[in-house]
Amino acid sequence: MQVLDKISESLKVFGAQIAHVYTETALDPEIGPPLDDTNLDKRIVNGLEKLGIQRLYKYQYESISSILNGENVAIISGTGTGKTEAFLIPLLELALKGERSVLIYPTKALARDQLSRINWLLNFLPEIKVDVLDGDTDRAKRQKIYEDPPEILITNPDMIHVGLALSPNFRQVIRGADHYVIDEMHVYDGVLGSHLRRILDRIRELNGPIHVIGASGTIEATPLLFNELFGVDGKIVRGVNRRRGMAIHALIDSKGVSRWTLSSYLAGLLVKEGLKTLVFVDSQQMAERLAKIAERFGANLAVHRAGILPKERMEVEEKLRNGELHGVVATPTLELGIDIGSLDVVVMAENPPSYPKYIQRAGRAGRRDKLGLIFTVLGDSPIDNYFLRRPSEFFSRKLTPITFDNSNMEVLKVHTAAFILEKLGVNMNTLPDLWRRAAEELKKEGIIACENKVYYSTSSTREFVRKSSLRSSGPIVKVVEQRKIGERELPAALYDLYPGSLYMVSKRTYEVKSLDLRSLEARVVKIEQDKGYYTKPLYSVDIKEFKETESRKVLGLPAKYGELTVTVFVTGYVVYDYYSKREKPVNEVQYDNPIEFTYNTKGIIIKHPAMDDWDLLSSMEAYHATEHVLISAGRVVAGASLTDLSGISYPSGHVVIYDSSVGGNGVSRLLYSRLESAYDIALDIVKGCDCEDGCPKCVYDPYCGNNNRVLSRKKSLRLIDYVIKGEEADDSPIEGKSVR
């Protein structure tokens, strides 16, 4: 292909190369019966035929039949293969019989975006009303919906959370529905998945029946996952795993060049070719940095990410749709099916954290039956090098399930408070065990009151619920110049907003002057001139408490999973040259008083054996490196992003790997269940590298708190090989000072 040849030739400027090309040609799902052979209402059949739909796919027919039979269903099929029709057609049939449905989308933007598609299908059914009810719906429209609810109501989890707690009219409309659709199921991993489950519990008033339909194209779904996410049993109906149409995927070996520089250069080339290009990264600050670097290559890339004001994100979406923009760099905020027009190319500046996310992002290119181009830049990281050695494995991976933690106490506290606020008073004996535990914590914190075994709401309850967020489980730090310009959740805020750091918002650079965790405010000043450097924090982590909930032997090693209390100490930061080919610090700053934050989460403790001929330093080099490669392996076996997991290692042989979210996100739990596979991948990482004794390609971690000191690839290789051969370790307690 001509574009591929041009890109391949242009990459030679940096010494980089296209390492592997994969051509994806996905067939349509298996054909099912003609519309005339179904028992659907003739008005629906006639309307669909006028829209050019003559037959159903087999999976659509199965979905429609199951939904009409009242079964709970998760519909899994690739992008562009008709998932929306698979659940909407039976809901239209039910609407003609007087039944109402609520369609829940993860964001307001996506919900309103889907309205136009649904209206397209409703052109021939004027008797069915569809409306959107969210935070942007004006008062008059809301009142009209409350007085005469539409057959199909579109909303989002945030609106349901607040509406159930504060509005009797809203409660009546939502609980009065007969069917609930959760589209884009894959979005509900981590903390958001925990919140969704509790919202559904509140809709059905904790344990009642509910008719739920889920839909996604990019997850491995099982009946167990269905039950965990929705709280009821259900079946899985599958179409095809891949999206509809053709795409060309290319893996780029950066050959040691900065991925950010290479991706910026690549985006510039593609935009100059007249190709509408979307660049994905996983870090908010990396999105800003990449967009800034792209200016050097003549590409004006807009930034679309969480943490900037919603108005700015909406402007980017609109400009993409109408053709004013030809290039955007985004975090996962644009993974969803928001209509941003037809895209030609997706560039992934880093290997996505999981295969489902890769498929989701790749599916944004070449939609509407156009050829899509997908470039993935692989850099100097353990997993990138693993896939450069096995490129075919990159595209043959199995989909992983979403991960979330239904015992996240911070999430439960939010919904318990909201439920008590709605009811005004709740008898403690009517609450499930976890909800009652959350209520007791709320009582201790003075957020609710309790008398004669009845929990009561107070003015503090209302304030707590109003300030709560479904997008996080930790406190939110405001980023303030003269006004609020952004926000960041703790503990992630510790690693972006420490004093002296450079923080970017919409390609504008600010220097952080102070971080106050009591007022949850970071004060920044704008920098007019590029300083030519960026910073990374130095920090340490300490475990304050561990409560075991389960344990098992993993390759002869004692492994435990449970609840952790961790304290993070940010002690300073290191400075790096912005345009250096390889990352080497040019300065280091230590604080007089560390910044300290303590939170509860979930995690794993693994005890490794000691080697008789190793001194203390050698042992720490092995354990610390092994901690890093196990976290890297978690990206393959558990779908972990770069920031989902953190770790600590101790000279006693203990390695601790824990969820980076307050309360837990479920990733460490999945890793715990797949540790044997993680050790196999970890062994390949340390065995396959050609460095002397440690480098970014094997044991370095970009988020290491001590700047990747005290690491040895060779000693980790010896340790992991020793473990896999079946050598056991004792179950002694943690000793010594930790390393992160």
Automatic annotation (TrEMBL):
Domain named Helicase C-terminal: residues: 265-410
CDD domains (alphabetical): SF2_C_Hrq
Alphabetically ordered keywords of this record: ATP-binding, Helicase, Hydrolase, Nucleotide-binding
Family matches, as Pfam families: DEAD, Helicase_C, MZB
InterPro entries: DEAD/DEAH_box_helicase_dom (IPR011545), Helicase_ATP-bd (IPR014001), Helicase_C-like (IPR001650), MZB (IPR018973), P-loop_NTPase (IPR027417)
Keyword Transcription: no
One MF term in the entry's GO annotations: nucleic acid binding
Keyword Transmembrane: no
GO biological process: interstrand cross-link repair; nucleotide-excision repair
Helicase ATP-binding domain sequence ranges: 64-237
Designated name of the protein: DEAD/DEAH box helicase domain-containing protein
Species of provenance: Metallosphaera cuprina (strain Ar-4)
Lineage of the species this protein comes from: Archaea, Thermoproteota, Thermoprotei, Sulfolobales, Sulfolobaceae
